[in-house]
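Encode chain A's predicted structure.
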Amino acid sequence: MDLILDTNALSAAAGGDPEINSRIRSARRLLIPVIVLGEYRFGIFQSQRRQIHEEWLAELLAGCIILEINDDTTFHYAEIRGELKRAGLPIPSNDLWIAALARQHQAPVLSRDRHFDCVAGLKRLS
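Encoded structure for chain A:
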């Protein structure tokens, strides 16, 4: 199965979390939203172990697909944001984009963030 990584899953994988890395190894393809990549690179930018994290990320990305936002993604974003607003369940804006990409590509999100559970048609793995 394809698997979308959220930023906290990417960070946990970099930290050697055995459960997260097991899920990653079992995925058919790893999909990383461009938003997640930006958030993670911001973390690297602030890290004292910058070179180690950059090398780890480069190795991981060699086998991943980067999901970019396109016109189709914006329809999913608008629909999800509207659904959550009507339900009174807002989630962070970056996570809205990740959820939109997940619905667009019909792939589960590996994340510790439970607010993804509020998005209809999205499966979260933890």
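Helices lie at 7-14, 18-26, 34-46, 50-61, 71-87, 93-105.
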